[in-house]
Write a structure and sequence with these properties.
Blueprint lengths: L19 H19 L3 E4 L2 E4 L5 H15 L1 H27 L9 H40 L4 H24 L8 H21 L1 H14 L8
Antiparallel strand pairs: 1-2
Keywords: Cell membrane, Membrane, Transmembrane, Transmembrane helix, Transport
Function: Involved in the import of queuosine (Q) precursors, required for Q precursor salvage.
Membrane topology: Multi-pass membrane protein
Amino acid sequence: MTSTQETPEHRGTAIVGSAYYPVLVAVFTALVIISNVTATKGVAFGPIITDGGFIVFPLTYVIGDVLSEVYGFKAARRAIFLGFSMNALAALAFWVTIYLPAADFYTNQEHFENVVGAYTQLIVAGLAGFIVGQTINAWVVVAIKERTKEKHLWARLIGSTFAGQLGDTLVFCAIAAGAIGISTFGDFVTYTALGWVYKTAVEVIMLPITYRVIAAIKRREPTYQVAV
């Protein structure tokens, strides 16, 4: 039986075999990889400590909300595992590249090793934090939807963001802080708190766009069944 003949996990979701699901998963995966690469650099805006992942990482939760709302928990979880499988493959490719013989004109071997080392630790941090955070995020979206059906989308999106980002940020920062050079408890607290507040705020600001994307996909997704 093909994926297009699957039965949705419950009313209120669409089948993952549509044209929209793989596009969302592809964007989701790319954002995860980009975030982990850019997160290898610690960034300071005066007393504010963060990393380069702040640029696009919050968008992964926007995509995660769309996947959870339209396709359900299992489909969102599949995207999470796929995203980090590709991250693991990227880390493996980087490490293999380190041990390849360098050309005579290549003078950045040490710098490349430093970036790859930090990236690998961030992969571990990201895998742990993102699986925790995105799983909480997806579960909260689906759990609230079972009670509210198609109403109160804002409650599902904000509630899932608040809980998911908290779990993600705590786990990620605890592992990643050392990789970007954070060594004091004060800097760690600032790094963790800022990450949670910033990522949550971005998702709240993005709510109008998230609403429109979800509505558009629901209208165009032929297998979507309205929750009643």
